[in-house]
Amino acid sequence: MRRILAYEAVMYVVAIPNRRSPPAVLLRESFRENGKVKNRTLANLTDWPPAQVDALRAVLRGGFTKVAELDKAFEIVRSRPHGHVAAVLGTMRRLELPALLGRTRCSERDLALAMIAARILEPRSKLATAEALREDTLHSTLGEILGVQSADEDDLYAAMDWLLEQQPRIEGALAKRHLKDGTLVLYDVSSTYFEGRHCPLARIGYSRDGKKGTLQIVFGLLCDGEGRPVAVEVFEGNTGDPTTLGPQLRKLRERFGLKRIILVGDRGMITDARIRDELRPVDGLDWITALRAPAIQALVDGGSLQLSLFDQKDLAEITDPAYPGERLMVCKNPLLAQERGRKREDLLQFTERELAKVAAATKRAKNRLKGKEAIALRLGTVLGRFKMAKHFHTEITAADFRYHRDEESIRREAALDGFYVVRTNVSADRLGPAEVVGTYKQLSTVERAFRSIKTVDLRVRPIHHHNADRVRAHVLLCMLAYYVEWHMRRALAPMLFEDDDKAAARAARASVVAPAQRSEKAQRKAAAKRTDDGLPVHSFQSLLSDLATVAKNRVQPKDAGTAPFDVITTPTVIQQRAFSLLEVSHRL
C-alpha cells in the first residue's frame, strides 16, 4: 500500500492559509511532464484529525515502518482501466475532433465522442456500449471522463441521429484540412453484410465478405493521398461500383469546392463508360486507373504492346489509338507472374478433378448421370465455381461427357502473367511514369482502411440497425474512428510492427514495379521483436491492451468521514513511451 501513497515518490502534505478560515490541508503530488515540474491536488485532508495528518506526513517521509498497520488504513474500492482511454481521448483532443463534430459542447457531441472512442477501444453493439459507459457497470474511465455515465442506448441512438446531421459539415472540415486544389484523391468501395431484413439499404448483392446470399450494404470511402479518410457514403447493397462514382465527383466539386483533382480508382470503378460520361466532360479532373485483362490482350493483338520489350525492363510508357489523349504505363512484375501461373495451375487441377467426377457419373452402374441437359447443368456448376470454362474444351452427348484442356487459351493468358497497365490522362510534366504507377498503388492504403474498419479493429460488421439513417451514422462513426486510429498508428509506428522509415523502404526498392521492401529498421524490429531502444514491439491492439493496465484506482481511507480519492497507476517505461509518441498525458 505504501507504493500507492508514494506515487512517483513526490507526494506531500501542505497547509494552505485561508484569511478567515482554518488552513486547507491538501495531499498534493509533484511530477515532471515534458521537462516541466507540475503539481496537482489529490485529496483535501482538511477534515482529518491532526494526528492522522501527522501520521500521513510521516509515511510520505519514509518514517512509518508498520506496514501492516498502513495496509489496514486504506483500501482500493474500485479500479477502472484508464490508460488506453487517455491515449484515444487525448489523440481526439489533439486532432480537435470535438470541435470538428460540433462547435459547442452538448450531450449529443459527448456521446458521439464516446461512441467513436468505443469503436477503437471495445467495438460492440450500442446496447453493450451504453452498458460499458454506465457508472455501475463501466468497463473503463471513458464514460466518467466524458460525463456520460447516465446514458442508455436510446441516448446513443439520438446522438447518432444528431451526428448524421453534422456529416456534411464534418466532411467539409476534413476536406479543408487534408485536400486542396491539384490534390490526389483515393476512392474505393467495399460492402458488408447485414443482420435482419427490414432496412431499405439492405439488398442482395456481391459479398466481399464471402457471405453469399446475405443482404449487403455498399459504402464508398474517399481518402487523401496518404490514405487518411475524409468522407464516406453508404449505398444500397446491389449498387455497382461504377455507379457510386458520380456522387463522389459532385461531393468533391460542389461541396468541397475543389476545381482540380487527380482521382485514383481501380479498374472496376473507373470504367470506359465512366471516363466517357462522367470524367472527360469535367474540366480540371484528372484520373488514374488500370486496364482489365481483355483490354491488355487487345493491346498485344493490335501491336501497341510488344512483350519482348520487357525482357530487360519492367516499366514502359506506350500509347494506343483506342485511348486518345491518354498515357498507358505497362508494368511487368516477375513475382506476380509466378504467383498467377501457380494459381492458374491449381485451379486447372481442381477443375479437372471435379470434371473427372462428372465424367465418372455418366458411366456408373446405378443412378447414372445422363441426358444433355442434366450433364450440362452439372458441368456448368463445376466450371462456374472455378471460372475455368475458357480453358477447357468440352463435348456433351446424351450418354457421356468428354473434356480436355485448351492449351492455346492457357498459353495466351500465361503470356500476360505479371503484366498490368496503368491508364491516366495526367500529363507527363505533372507525373512521370514511375510516379503514375506509384500513385495508383496508393489505393492499397484505402484497402487497409477497409480491413481495419471491417475486421481488424473497428468491426463495422455485422450491422444490426434497421433504420437507414442509423446505418449511415454507424458507418460514419467507424470512419471517424479510423481517422483517429490512422493518426495513432502513424504516431506509434516506432513501437509497432509497422515500417516507420518509409523513405528508407522506398530507397531500398529496385523500382516502383518491384515488390515493396521493408526498411532495415523494420526488419530489425520484426526479427528481434524489439525496438532499437530495447522495448518490446507491439501490434496496435496489444499496445492498447498494455495501456489499459494503467488504472484509475479509487482509494478509500478507513478513517470514518474521510473522503476517498483517486490515484492513477504510474506508467511503465513502455507505456510512457507510447504517451510521449502520441503527445498526450495519461492524466485526463
Characterization of this structure:
- The protein is an alpha+beta fold and 588 residues long.
- The chain folds into five domains: 1-65, no CATH class; 83-163, no CATH class; 179-333 and 418-466; 336-415; 487-547, no CATH class.
- The chain has helices spanning 2-5, 50-60, 67-73, 83-94, 97-101, 107-121, 126-133, 142-146, 153-178, 245-255, 272-279, 293-302, 334-361, 372-386, 407-415, 433-441, 443-456, 468-492, 502-508, 520-528, 540-547, 573-582, and strands at residues 11-16, 24-33, 36-44, 74-81, 183-193, 203-204, 215-224, 229-236, 261-264, 285-290, 315-318, 327-332, 392-396, 401-405, 419-424, 551-557, 565-568.
- The strands form four sheets. Strands 5, 6, 7, 8, 9, 10, 11, 12 and 15 form a nine-stranded mixed β-sheet that branches. A three-stranded antiparallel β-sheet has the order 1-2-3.
- Strand 11 and strand 12 (327-332) form a beta hairpin.
- Helix 4 packs parallel to helix 22 (573-582) and helix 13 (334-361) packs antiparallel against helix 14 (372-386).
- It is elongated, with a radius of gyration of 31 Å.
- The two termini are 24 Å apart.
- Mean pLDDT is 89; it is low at 1-9.
Which short descriptors sum up this protein?
single chain, disordered N terminus, 5 domains, alpha+beta, about 600 residues
